[in-house]
Design brief:
The structure holds two protein chains of two kinds.
Chain A lengths: L2 H25 L3 H16 L1 H4 L6 H26 L11 H22 L5 E2 L2 E2 L3 H26 L4 H23 L7 H39 L11 H15 L6
Antiparallel strand pairs in A: 1-2
Helix pairs in contact in A: 1-2, 4-5, 6-7, 6-8, 7-8
Chain B lengths: L3 H25 L6 H29 L8 H21 L12 H35 L12
Helix pairs in contact in B: 2-3, 2-4
The chains are: A mainly alpha, B mainly alpha.
Chain lengths: ~260, ~150
């Protein structure tokens, strides 16, 4: 098969299938159809380094495969931490909070080990080019939004100092890992190379936030302009006596008789 | 910090100050602004604008069902997306202005899309971690009753 055709069919088409599946599962009542399409697409993207090895883009599929276990462990851990707390429904045993915390620590440690030990995600015998995009972006964004979460808990909630401090600790942990990576060489990535990529990650985050924000602004302007062109809705006539009686009957039926007051 | 305006200012500072501090620390270590960072910023901006525009148009198409699916907003968004794509292609065609280590405009566009998906994935995972931890921190405390129980 031609390499371009192979990349189109075995990487880009499955990538579109993931997005299409998510769209379908959020649009239709039969959600399993969308989920199945997304799952097949995801699996095909993850095995794309084997099925379309000529395409450079398949490095992203390889990275997805490398990150699958830490991501699943992290999500499972978060589930345990949340539902092991004081939630009104589906509460798990108290121990699941600590097990969940342990799972999250293991997941973050394994990501750190990917930087500092020999389990660095590789591709074509070199470091995966998208790993060095993912890792600084993940760290920087974690610092940024845990700081936002901490401030919002302090300013928007009441009696949330304890929770805000915990979010602050998460931000400090992420900042410590980042500073360590900036000063201590990794197994394959040097501290200097990491610092270079940190600039790129900052540029990426800023670009994505401004770009997505601009699209939302344009979308708002388009909708606002369209709505402004619409004629004013006509004033409806007041309810008739029969309609008032019907409403009164429905209210009475729902409230019960005067004896129940 | 009690009024809404002050809150937004604090949230904005909280979002960008840590990133600025990290970059400042890098400058202290003797690293200067890499030229490639501007290209990355511009490519990320244009790619996220186009992809977010497509996402919003998709949602507009679906959710407009209850409004007899008006065509005008979809056409409007279509024009906005096409303008975004045209600007991207135009800027990428200007020699070394936005081109990174890719041989052609098409290769750069495909690279931008994959790069954007990886960065967005990292941001989504980070958001999952922080939001999950925030909920865990909130529910770890026994909720205080809203009203004292009547005797």
């Amino acid at each position: 098969m031609d390499s371009m055709l192979g990349a189109a069919l075995l990487f880009w088409l499955p990538l579109l299938m993931i997005a299409f599946g998510i769209w379908i599962s959020s649009s239709l009542t039969k959600k399993y159809i969308g989920r199945s399409i997304s799952f097949i697409g995801l699996a095909m993207v993850m095995i794309s380094p084997l099925t379309a090895p000529e395409s450079d883009s398949t490095a992203a599929g390889q990275l997805l495969l490398n990150l699958l276990i830490p991501v699943l462990v992290m999500c499972w851990g978060l589930y345990g931490m949340v539902f092991g707390g004081h939630v009104p429904i589906q509460r798990l045993p108290r121990s699941s909070r600590w097990i969940g915390l342990g799972a999250c620590v293991i997941a973050i440690t394994s990501l750190g080990l990917m930087h500092w030990s020999i389990i660095t995600p590789m591709w074509r015998g070199e470091i995966n080019p998208y790993w060095i995009v993912f890792w600084p972006t993940f760290l920087l964004f974690t610092i940024s939004i845990s700081s936002v979460a901490s401030v919002s808990l302090l300013t928007l909630g009441t009696d949330r100092l304890d929770s805000a401090l915990r979010m602050g600790v998460l931000g400090i942990v992420a900042a410590t890992i980042t500073i360590s990576a900036m000063t201590i060489n990794g197994a394959i990535t040097s501290a200097e190379a990491f610092r270079e990529h940190l600039w790129m990650a900052s540029a990426d985050i800023l670009g994505i936030v401004i770009g997505a924000g601009s699209a939302i602004v344009v979308f708002t302007i388009v909708i606002w302009t369209y709505e402004n062109t619409q004629p004013t809705p006509t004033v409806t006539t007041p309810p008739s006596t029969e309609e008032y009686e019907h409403v009164a009957a429905v209210i009475a039926e729902n409230l019960g008789s005067a004896d129940n007051e | 910090m009690s009024d809404g305006k002050a809150n937004w200012r604090w949230l904005f500072i909280a979002a960008f100050l840590p990133i600025l501090l990290m970059v400042l620390f890098d400058v202290i270590l003797g690293h200067s602004f890499p030229e490639e960072a501007f290209k990355r910023f511009a490519n990320a901006l244009l790619t996220s604008y186009v992809l977010m525009g497509i996402l919003l148009t998709g949602n507009l198409f679906f959710y407009a069902g209850s409004r007899q699916r008006p065509l005008a907003p979809i056409v409007g968004m279509g024009i906005a997306i096409i303008a975004g794509i045209a600007i991207t292609v135009l800027l990428l065609s200007q020699d070394d202005l936005l081109m990174e280590a890719n041989g052609s405009v098409r290769a750069q566009i495909l690279h931008n899309i994959v790069h954007m998906l990886v960065s967005a994935g990292a941001m989504a995972l980070s958001a999952t971690l922080v939001i999950g931890s925030m909920f865990a921190a909130i529910v770890s405390k026994k909720p205080t009753p809203l009203f004292d129980e009547e005797e």
